[in-house]
Task: structure prediction
Amino acid sequence: MTPPADAADTMDLRDLADKHEGDPFGITSAAVALVDVHGLIRYWSHRAEGLLGYPAPSVLGRPATSLLGSDRSPASLLAQAQRVGEGWEGMITARHRAGHPVELALRVCPLHAEQGAVWLAVACEVSDSRRWELDQAVVRGLLEESPIGIAVLDSQLRFQWVNQVLAAMEGLPADLAAPRTTAPAGPAQVPTAVDWQARQALTSGRITPAVEHVAPPHGMSRRNSQGQLRLRSSFPLRDVDGKTLGVCHTAVDFTAQDRARERLALVNEAAQRIGTTLDLDRTVQELAEVLVPQLADFVAIDLFQGVLRARDLTPGPITGGTLQRAVHLSIHAELPEAIVPVGESTGYPSKSPQRRCLATGRPILDPVLDTTTWWLAGDEQRLSKLLSLGVHTHLVVPLRARGATMGVVTLLRWENPGPFDEDDLLLVEELVARAAVCVDNARRFVREHNAALALQTSLLPPDLPDHCAVEVAYRYLPTDAEAGVGGDWFDVIPLSGARIALVVGDVVGHGIHAAASMGRLRAAVQTLADMDLPPDELLAHVDDLVLRLAEEAEASENGPVVIGATCVYAVYDPISRKLSVARAGHPTPAIAHLSEPVELPDIPAGPPLGLGGLPFESAEIELEEGSVVALYTDGLIEASDRDVDVGFERLCFALAHPDRPLEEICDTMVRILLPDHPHDDVAFLIARTRALPPDRVASWEVPTDPRAVHEARDNTARCLAAWGLEDLAFATELIVSELITNAIKHACGPIGLRLIHERTLICEVSDASNTSPHMRRARTTDEGGRGLFLVAQVAQRWGTRYTATGKTIWAEQQLPNDVSSRGEARGQGDTAEEVLSDEH
Result:
C-alpha cells in the first residue's frame, strides 16, 4: 500500500530522528503510525519497526488492533484514554513480534481528510515517557519554583522570556514574566548589569560568571548594609547545528546566606575576643566592641554594684538593686548618646525597658520605637536625647549566667536604618550569653582574688619592728588579678642577744590555698625562730612541717595539696657583725658593700621545702656597718623577660650606692626590675646593718666557784652604774645571781656573763652544758628550785639558746624611760670596761 502524501513528507525526517534525541513523543523520535477510518494501518515508521519488531510491509493494511493482542475497537480504546485537546493520550500494552508484551505511552490525534478522519498515532516506551516527564518537571521547577532568576535574550539582547524571580530581582514589568506563547510585543529595558554580562557571553561564546554587590538604598550606611549579593551567569544558546540563537542569563541572590555567614563570623569573633582576660572591666569592654558597630550604633552595659564588688548573686530574676554603668560605646567618639558616665548609677525609671527586662528575665525588642510610650514619661532627659538623635529601634537584653542576673545590655540604632528583628535578637542573646559567662568567671575570680589577698595581707606583718641591729624596708607587690594571689611572704623576727632574723619565702601555687599555706609556714618559722635554732636546723624543721601538711592534705578530700615552698633565713648579730644564712631552694641574698661591688654570696642552695631527707647548710658572712642585705622572691629576678641572669644584673645595679635611703633603693628596684604588670607575686626585704657600739656590751668569765657569784654581782652593779641604769641594779643582780648559781651547781665551765645595753637590758649566762633548764614550782620544804621562777618574775622575757659549745640562758628587762639622758650624763662617753677598771 502506498503511504499518503503527508506521510511521505514525514519520512524525510527519518535521518533527523535517528540523529537527534529529544521529546520521546517528537515526530522525529517517536514511533509513528497512520490509521484510516477503517482502523487499518496506512503508515509505519522506522521507529515503529524498532519498537515492536514488525517491518512496514508486514503491518501495512492490517487492523491496528491486531498489534494489541485484543479485538477491542479503536473507539473503545480511546474511550479509556485521557482527552487532551482534540486527541487522546494514555498507556497501552502492544504485542512484540517476538511475542512478549511491550508497555507503550500513546498519543492519538485526528487528521481530517476527504475520505474522513485519519488517526495519527505516536508512541514510545513508557520508561522513556516517564523519564521525559521527570525532566520536564525538573525544568519547570527550575524555571518557575526555584529561587534562581532566569531570562532568555535573543541575539539582539532583547528579552524573550523572563521568570518571576528575575523580574522581581531587577524590578522588571510584571507582564514581562507573565506566561506567554510568543515573544513580548514590545522591547523591555535590559538592566545594565544583565546587558553587559550577556554581551560578554554572546561575544566570547563562553560562560561569564560574576558576583555583584547591589548597593543599599540611598542613605543607608554600607557598614550596616541591607544591599544584595548576587551571583550572575550568562551563557550562549545554540541550536542543533551550533548556531547562536541568544543568551540565557541567570542570577542567584545569596544575600541571606551571606548574612548568615556574617553572623556566624561575628559569633566566632566574639568567642575569640570576649573573655581574653579575667578582668571584669575588660570583659564588658570586649562585649561592647563586638556589638558596635556590627550590630548597633550605641550600646550601654549596666551591671549591679554587687557584681562590680564581686559579691555573691541571688539566682533568678532581680527586681531591685542599683545598676551602675560599666561601659558604653558609640559609633561617635564623643559619645553624644551617653546620659550617665561610666561608674555612675544609671537611674532607670521603674517602668523602663531595662527594669522590666530585669524583672522578667526576658529581652525587650522594639523594632519601631515609639517615643511617646508611657515608660518614657518619667525620663525627660533620655526622651529628648532619643528624639535629637533620631533613634528608631531599641533592644534590651539581660546579662545572665548560671541562673543569676548580673545586669542589662541596651542597644540603639539611628544611623543604621534597619530595625532590630528576631534574627538580631537571637544573635545578640548569643553574644551576651557568652559574655555573661565570662563576666561571671571574672566576678568569681575577683572575689576569690580579693579574699586571698585579704588573707595574705592579714598574715603578713602589718609593720616591721624597729630594731637596733638593722634598718629595714620592704615591698610586697601581688600580681594582677588574672594570675591569682601567690604565697610570697617576708618577716623580721627579733631574737635574743640583740640579734635579728630576716626571712623571705615563697609557697608554690596561687590562690587562697597558697595564702593559707603561707600563713602556716610563717607561723612555724616564727615559732622555731623563738627557739633560737640555727638557720640550717630551722629550715630542716620547716621542711618536716611542709611534708606533714602535704600528707594531711592528701588524706583530706577537699584539702589543698601543699606542693612545696622555698625560703631563705638569715640571722644578723650586731655585736659580731656576722650574718648567718641558710636557704631552701631560694635565690641567694644580695649584699651591697660600702666599698666593694654588690655581692651575690655563694650560699649552699639546699633543696626546696617539702622534699624531705636532704640536709641544709648555713654560711656565715662578716659585714661592715652600713651594708645593705637584700632578700627577695624569684618573681623579682625572673620578671626581666624570664632571664635570671639579666635579673641579677639589674638587681646589682639597683643596689649600688647603698648609702641611699632604703625607700629610695626599694623604688629603684621596682622601677628597674619589674614591668607594669608582673606575672608573679614579688616580695623583697632590704636591711641596712648596724653595729652595737663596744661601750654597750660588757662580758666576764666567771669561775666555777660559788664565791664568784658575789664578784659577778659587783661587776654587774658597776656596769649598770656606768650606763646610768641604777634603777635596774637590784633586779639585774638577782638575775645574775640566780643564773650563775644554777650554772655552777648544775652545769660545767667555762661560765660566761655578758650584759648588753640596747633598747632593753639583756643579761646572758653561758656554760658548756647542753642540759635544758626548766622552771618549776618549788614546795615549801624545798631548799632550791626557785631560781628560774624568780628570774621569770623580774624579767620581761627569758629563754635558752644552744650554741656549738653549750647553751646560753638570757633574760631581758625593759629600760626606764629616761635612761638615755641619765646614761649620757653619767657615762660621758666612757665604756663599761673603762668604768670598771677605774673603780677597781
